Fold each of these.
Amino acid sequence: MKDTADSGPTTDTPPRARLVLQPVDRIDTDAQQRVKLNSTRLGETIEGKANEPISSEASPPGNYNGPGGGGGGGGRGAEFHKRVGPQDFSQSLKNGMAAVRHNLGYVMVMTCATNLLILAIPIYLFQISDRVLTSRSTDTLVMLTIVITGAVILQTAFDAVRRFILMRTAVEVAVQLGSPILSAAAAASLNGSGREYQTLGDLQQLRGFITSGTLLSFLDVPFAPLFIFAIYLVHPDLGMIVVATSLVLLVIALVNQRTTAKPFAEANLAQSKANMHLDSMSRNSQIINALAMIPEAVAIWGKDTAASLTSQVRAQDRNIISSAFSRGVRLLTQIGMLGWGAYLAIQGEITGGMVIAASIIAGRALAPIEGSIEGWNGFILTRGAYGRIRTLLQNSKLQFEKLRLPRPEGRLDVERLLFVPPGTKQVVLNGLSFQLNPGESLAIIGNSGAGKTTLGKMLVGSILPTSGNVRLDLMDLRNWEPRQLGENIGYLPQDVQLFPGTIKDNIGRMRRDATDDQIFEAATLADVHQMIATLPQGYETMVAADGSPLSGGQKQRIALARAFFGNPKLVVLDEPNSNLDTAGDKALARAVEHARRSRISVVVITQKPALLDVVDKIMLLTDGTITLFGTRDTVLQRIKQDQRARKTPPKPIGGQT
């Protein structure tokens, strides 16, 4: 809809009545037209007054008389030209992986030293067998024991240091990626299903793998050729036995990977669905118990859990078989090394000490390969978890730096709003356009399924439109700095949820810098202070995740105070009186009146006529389109006329009775 505030100069010609219902019936009085024509001064923004000096009477940007400062209740004034730096979630992933690679460099140094010092024991046995026992030299035994003891102590210390580094690397990964993953999941959930939040569980999987023994086995595998070379120096035949065994173990590992990848993926997918059902059960526990739906809920969860366990058992069976084969091959290799070594010793090609040392070194060379096969399941899970983390962070659009604008006045413009849910072709909102001036209140009414709640979510930016724009003070919501936008918007959703904490924390939006004055002002503006005062602990009353010990109506009124926290300039209330009694309805009506006096633009989505008496405008929404829009009295009169017209029987044609 073209904004009348941007039209040319007015004339004395009265406006023509607009009562056509296709596509929208906009009912405007002469007084409203004059308000629209004068609304330019009410909605002055950067675009409207770009080349004019700021009036000395105008309050500076970001300043107002409320206690929250220009940021909308943050306790600090909003600075006009203060920019917020860009947030690149993919860069956060790069930084996290860079930290991992940097620490793994030190871990590899420690691993190299550890594997070199492991040769101390075989060398000790070899020297005792071939030198000490033959020379019967006590001095040689003492010195050799001292040197080898020092090597073993160093090997133990280096192994502990690399484990310490890996543990701190896991913590570093959580620090580097935790906040970006949660922020990216929150941003992606606007057009997603909410499963993006499960990526935090993938981060835990990644952390667990970094500190697991499987990763240490993977790090030890590159040093297996060193041990094989040492065995080759003892005798080439023994070296060839170990090389052949290594190739057999490699084939077993490849077969294990090919045979377990698909069932493990199926198990993870089914487990993800089961976790979603479990989360749904926790959120709807009261309904499940009240309607005796526990068997059905358990059956739904058990179906996906059974599918996950079936696939997991199938994959684990194959993994266990591969591990058993690898263990059997390694033990047979030990027997072959000792048997063939004894034969070579009989032939006089090597000594008995060499046989024992070669057997120990062979076990150390093959142990990392066997450990990698046994831990392959953890590696597959971690690789999938990292893939989901990388997809989430890399697909999240770059959050460019945005200018921190002056504190908005509350002008709302909706232009050609269209919304089609992703994956469907059903049009929920079809070309909506309307405008609210600062301080005006609007009631959106309509039948269920008309798109009222979807429109309310779009007005606060929690759902992005398929096309069209929602503008606050002429600026599209997507171009506002997110923190500043949230501070200047209040929202009461249809499904009220409170956070675990005190009532004071919930009203203050869980912000640490929320002052008592701001919390009291929000409670007073929402007319809930008296209700809170009747609670045993007042504002310090603890609230659980399900809202207990508050009733449904009390939860709704606390959420109403949260919406008014920080003196926002736009408040959207979705069915705010669905759980309220008569006293609560009166308190809500007084809150809307308080908001009008405070020049807060209010949008109320309601089915009850009680709130229609305290709003300035009414919008009738039908099947995603605006049927009626105008001042309260005019729209109500038009609705009554339409109702009377439907009740009046049609006149007979041609005088027939």
Amino acid sequence: MYKIICLLWIVTILGSVSAIDMQAMQKILANGKEISGIGLSACVTDWNSDGKKDLLVGEKIEPVFLADTLVGKIRVYLNTGTNSNPVFSNYTLLQADGITIGTLSSWCLGASNPQVEDFNGDGIKDLIVGDAGNGHILFFSRKSSGILHFEGNLKANGNEITPGGNSSPNIVDWNEDGLLDLVLGHGNVNVRLYLNSGTRTSYKFTTYATLSAGGKTIETIRSQIAVKDMNQDGKKDIIISDWNSRIFFYENSGTNASPLLKEAVPLTSMGQSIGGADPFSACATDWNDDGAPDFITAEKLSYLRLYLGKKNTSVNENVKTALSTINPVFYKAGNHYSVKIFLNKTQNISLKVFSCTGKCLKTLTTEQLSAGIQTIPFDITNNSKGVYVLKMSANSMAFTCRLLQ
């Protein structure tokens, strides 16, 4: 017998805000002192799998000898506090294959924008980091023992991705197909998007597209990228920092599966644009576990700066309204299941089932349904046990639910 459980409904609605204003700047400390260095870029992740967020920091170390070239390193700060109040002390440097990871560096960056994601689909989070010196993007797989192994540089069309230095990778499922894509800031004047056309266990990048905002190609130099829902409307947005010491917020007015970025507005703190000298890094996270997105950055010769976000209560109320309006519910009848929804007007409904690898298994409906209560048959009992994703678009909203069979 199969048991189907709805793990969580995630609602995307079209409400939005035009700008993001963060709280006052704080310094991130370790051993009671500010975390400082050259070309710092942060990644917040549970590195040692103890349930608490840790901190990875890419940096550039000044060479001791002129012959030293691999001066880009990655620090690991383990959290001895809590998720809502992280506490850090000493750091270690990340190693792969028994050797300290080293990258080439530019004048301002070393190991750029480290990313921790399960890139090869084996259930263990891996490491991807930019090489600021030559623009390569390094992929390190992680074994069950925790040891990192260098798999090589990321490729597109069979060739190593080399955009010209200062690569700043961001690994994200850009088009919501279940595969991890690459949004790439770099030393030239645009932002590249490489969509993954491979599988969950074997990526495949081909030709890249350049991101646009407000109908125009985004033009930025030596950009650092952060992808996160910053205005709390359920859709991924983008923050970009660049060579001109500017940090901009790009709101997504499209959908999660097809982002449409609005024109840039400055990211502010207490009403003032966040700025400074030399290039900034960009990391978006929920630092204090309050549900609001936060932002971490640093200048070239500086310390990590933390800007806590503000909870958008109006958006949270809209999500509650959306759930009560559509109210998708699972029902069981014999060996078959159905989804019952309420529509306040006649409209087009799309309801599809995806595997955890992003493959569309069934299209339940893509038709116009009348107002009122509608019941849509739903059956995956002939499929193997595992996790499935149910995606529904209705009433200018998108609902996503993970199912466990």
Amino acid sequence: MRRCVLLENQFMTKRIFLALALLTGSVAFAQKKVKQPPPPPPPVVDVKEIPPPPKTPPPPIIKRANWKESYSAFLKRNPRVKGIGWTKRNAVIIRLKSGKEEVYDLSKEEDVVSVRNKYGQLPAPPPPPPSAPFPPPRVQNKRTQS
């Protein structure tokens, strides 16, 4: 009987040892990291074959009446006139060499007819002045109170 118990103990010990070996192997295998293959190298670009960037197109040509030439022609046609000016309210101011100023409202048809009969075709107005640049944004300092 003792021999039977001893054989059972040995057999049980073998089973426990085998179970522990399987458990240890599976844990070790589960912790093993799988290495990812390295990424492929980037393609080699030959610097000599890069085309230059496309040229920017020229700005569009806007045909405007040459106001300096039409102004000079107006003064030659009208020797009594010293100068001419325009207002923002669609009016023309004609300055005479005698010192007088004549104001014609171009929004009224009778003023347009009278200025054309008296002085002929008016010159083209000069281009508007460039707009002022935007001021830089103001930075406000925020003070924290303790």
Amino acid sequence: MLTFTVARSFQGLRTPNDNLELFAVPTVTRDDIRNLAIIAHVDHGKTTLVDAMLHQSGIFRANQRVAERVMDSIDLEREKGITILAKNTAVDYRGTRINIVDTPGHADFGGEVERILRLVDGALLLVDAADGPMPQTHFVVNKALEAGLTPIVVINKIDRPDARPAAVLEAVYDLLIDLEAPEAMLEFPVLYTCAKAGTCRRSPDAEDESLAPLFETILRCVPAPRHDPEHPLQAQVTTLDWDDYVGRLAIGRVYHGTLRSGATVALVRPSHQPGEAPGIESAKISQLFSYRGLERVPVTEVGAGELVAVAGIDAIEVGDTLADPEDPRPRPAMVIDEPTLAMSFGINDGPFAGREGTHVTSSKLRQRLMKEARGNVSIRVEPTEAPDTLQVIGRGELQLAILIEMMRREGYELVVGKPEVVTRDIEGRLCEPMERLWIDCPEEHVGAVTQALGPRRGRMTEVHGAGSGRVRVSYRLPARGLIGFRTELLTETRGTGIMNHIFDGWEPWQGAIPHRASGSLVADRSGRVTAYAIEQLQPRGTLMVGPGAEVYEGMIIGEHVRSSDLDVNITREKRLTNMRSSTGDELERLALPKRLSLEQSLEFIKGDEALEVTPAAYRLRKRTLGVTARRVHAKRAARPAS
């Protein structure tokens, strides 16, 4: 049964586009619904807490086998231990449906958080009891404050031996004050949990309970959704999904009115320029779904304040509004932070093209990237001068690396270029994106890290102890200074350094930043790698291929000890003669090849190099494969302009 409460106060409706108060109307409150987003830094336990909430709400049968981190439904999420896409679920507690949205914790997927905060009326801020507020915590709290959401603070992992809940709570207060939060928002409720054990405390030293205090706090502190009963239908799309049976799904929230299955609605596209009229077309809803636990349940209608998945409208996009055909009123357009990193995506034009993948044409590549851009508004796809190459612009290296890995697993073959930052012209000056970088490392490595960041234009802004002999250091540097730094950090700190970063505005161009100092060892012919050739080339650098591997001309097979590139014959075989020595052939001692991951490969390549990605392998290569052609290009580039 639906519960409505008519509010006695009047609510002024504003539009973010013009910030003008339009009118005041009485509102109706849906007391049987709460809409909540869980926000946190990566690896602070969001998905694990959702698991515990699902179990204790009675969603699963007593004998039902449920995977750990059940909300991480994508293979890559389980492998990397991070949330990539925001996902909806719902639990019932004491007659109230709590819609929960699990959001990504990494800054590169911040576009998901920005969209999801439009769906909800409250936010549950999860903070690690030992780590405290981290870089992504700053980002998500700032977005929650912009949306006017007062957070429920949950200090998680209270069972850690190095837990310091009092200091972490103080750091949360400091964070809100730094972000200029209104005084009313500083009166937030605080709970202490161990998500893995499914327990909750009302104070750090209290006895462990079930998650009942958390559910009660959500019902008490998260505002119930409000709507105007006289307002025509308004529902806005924030996420797109796909179902094998019903096709494209548009996921969003009904703000006013009622959506009905089979009804004809107005599909209103937002205007992005001042004075531009929104586009309106007719559309028919074939099916509606509501959320019950992890399942989408077909329903005939969905009322105001509820989250819904709509099927049957193939042309729908993120940000569109479903409205009353007689009185179509669009919701304000979504404002998402601009992407800052660009990378070229092209077809595989190497000698091994078509051997290992099923999608190898430029049309297939274009369709897949356009599909990604439609569902993820934080990614842009733009044409380039080359007809078979597109430029993809995203939030960071990790976001683009995840896209590349997903395409590889889907059977695509592609060649991607070096990541480059996006620049802007601001008041006649060339400006570049800046990043705020946090590094957590043992105290003895701080000097080496600071020295490594010096040439990358990094400026130290803050240093404080993180406990257990570790130090947390904050820097500010250009975004391009982070390209390739993760590998260098692990080297300088012997694998003990942890880095996190978030976007921190635009500043004038900071000057040249050196990339990899070493050159590349490049194969000068096609064939199979021999052990004899590897033995002869080992003094020249670090090799990335082993005996028997197939290579082609222009393929990078190692890292040169000098700054210049070197073309080498990696397929050379030992000549056989009739001469024999008394000691016989010497034993060949070969070092293990250096295998680079996808992220390490993207950090390794220079401007004239590229990464070939297929379902079976990653291959580093030169953009121009032929030895002679590369030498001609080098001579032309060195020739002074006439």
